[in-house]
Amino acid sequence: MTHTMTDTQAVKSYFLSLQANIVQALEAVDGKAFLTDSWERPEGGGGISRVIEEGQVFERGGVNFSHVMGNNLPPSAAASRPELAGRKWEAMGVSLVLHPRNPYAPTVHMNVRFFTTHAEGKEAVWWFGGGMDLTPYYGFEEDARHFHQTCKISLSPFGDELHARFKKWCDEYFYLKHRKEARGVGGIFFDDFNQLDFEQSFAMTRSVGDAFIPAYRPILEKRCGLAYGERERDFQAYRRGRYVEFNLVFDRGTHFGLQSGGRTESILMSMPPIVKWRYNWTPEAGSPEEQLSTHFLAHREWV
């Protein structure tokens, strides 16, 4: 299960090309260029943040690459393997969140990442993680089915059981326990993955990363031109509050970034620009807003 420095460089090269390819595809949809912000981390490493704000389609979004390292693995990264806490570590990946302006176009999140840890006299321990999930404000059956089908196809060459397992993992991970509510319609999620050898684990991670644009772009293009009004924008802002709650309270990536001394601007890039909270509000019975909770956020088998 070992890997070499050459392997690590191959992963980094892939992540950089993935970031560039995704940004290029999104710029073609929006028409506005993403700004590029390169940064260095005093403790070691750095990254490239690609950010769009007030675009034609995207109200806010970012596609971030980071490659960081340190001498003491944070607890959030060693949650399932406490024996690795305190080791030297290296982490790299691409993480994106996109918040379209149109309430009929869903928010989306995707990330793929690679970790390796080192300790004197011990074999390096490595793993991959990642996935993508869709967070609509107004639900469309065909959008959810398309997104899940694309995720399933990306995993199928690597094992028939993976999609069901990663789909369930996503449902359970992107869940607001204090609300007893899913964040969105799910997708796939995996972490601490090294059950295949390095080459196959890396190939699976590439397949997931490469599936993002085919999974999301057709939905975005179909929905971003639909007419909407203040009611829809208001509900979108209310539901975005759930996104903020999840990322700050539960998300391991956010916690890892902050615990490891990461770059706050890049970590909190995932936050939507306009959000509302209300006290004890419920949508009108029979409305599309109510249907989101009753029909789309309930865990379902979409494909």
Automatic annotation (TrEMBL):
<keyword id="KW-0479">Metal-binding</keyword>
<dbReference type="InterPro" id="IPR018375">
    <property type="entry name" value="Coprogen_oxidase_CS"/>
</dbReference>
<feature type="site" description="Important for dimerization">
    <location>
        <position position="178"/>
    </location>
</feature>
<comment type="similarity">
    <text>Belongs to the aerobic coproporphyrinogen-III oxidase family.</text>
</comment>
<dbReference type="InterPro" id="IPR036406">
    <property type="entry name" value="Coprogen_oxidase_aer_sf"/>
</dbReference>
<dbReference type="InterPro" id="IPR001260">
    <property type="entry name" value="Coprogen_oxidase_aer"/>
</dbReference>
<dbReference type="Pfam" id="PF01218">
    <property type="entry name" value="Coprogen_oxidas"/>
</dbReference>
<feature type="binding site">
    <location>
        <position position="109"/>
    </location>
    <ligand>
        <name>a divalent metal cation</name>
    </ligand>
</feature>
<feature type="binding site">
    <location>
        <begin position="111"/>
        <end position="113"/>
    </location>
    <ligand>
        <name>substrate</name>
    </ligand>
</feature>
<feature type="binding site">
    <location>
        <position position="178"/>
    </location>
    <ligand>
        <name>a divalent metal cation</name>
    </ligand>
</feature>
<keyword id="KW-0963">Cytoplasm</keyword>
<keyword id="KW-0560">Oxidoreductase</keyword>
<dbReference type="GO" id="GO:0004109">
    <property type="term" value="F:coproporphyrinogen oxidase activity"/>
</dbReference>
<feature type="binding site">
    <location>
        <begin position="261"/>
        <end position="263"/>
    </location>
    <ligand>
        <name>substrate</name>
    </ligand>
</feature>
<feature type="binding site">
    <location>
        <position position="95"/>
    </location>
    <ligand>
        <name>substrate</name>
    </ligand>
</feature>
<dbReference type="GO" id="GO:0042803">
    <property type="term" value="F:protein homodimerization activity"/>
</dbReference>
<dbReference type="GO" id="GO:0006782">
    <property type="term" value="P:protoporphyrinogen IX biosynthetic process"/>
</dbReference>
<comment type="subunit">
    <text>Homodimer.</text>
</comment>
<feature type="binding site">
    <location>
        <position position="99"/>
    </location>
    <ligand>
        <name>a divalent metal cation</name>
    </ligand>
</feature>
<keyword id="KW-0350">Heme biosynthesis</keyword>
<dbReference type="GO" id="GO:0046872">
    <property type="term" value="F:metal ion binding"/>
</dbReference>
<dbReference type="GO" id="GO:0005737">
    <property type="term" value="C:cytoplasm"/>
</dbReference>
<protein>
    <recommendedName>
        <fullName>Oxygen-dependent coproporphyrinogen-III oxidase</fullName>
        <ecNumber>1.3.3.3</ecNumber>
    </recommendedName>
</protein>
<feature type="active site" description="Proton donor">
    <location>
        <position position="109"/>
    </location>
</feature>
<comment type="function">
    <text>Involved in the heme biosynthesis. Catalyzes the aerobic oxidative decarboxylation of propionate groups of rings A and B of coproporphyrinogen-III to yield the vinyl groups in protoporphyrinogen-IX.</text>
</comment>
<feature type="region of interest" description="Important for dimerization">
    <location>
        <begin position="243"/>
        <end position="278"/>
    </location>
</feature>
<keyword id="KW-0627">Porphyrin biosynthesis</keyword>
<feature type="binding site">
    <location>
        <position position="148"/>
    </location>
    <ligand>
        <name>a divalent metal cation</name>
    </ligand>
</feature>
<comment type="pathway">
    <text>Porphyrin-containing compound metabolism; protoporphyrin-IX biosynthesis; protoporphyrinogen-IX from coproporphyrinogen-III (O2 route): step 1/1.</text>
</comment>
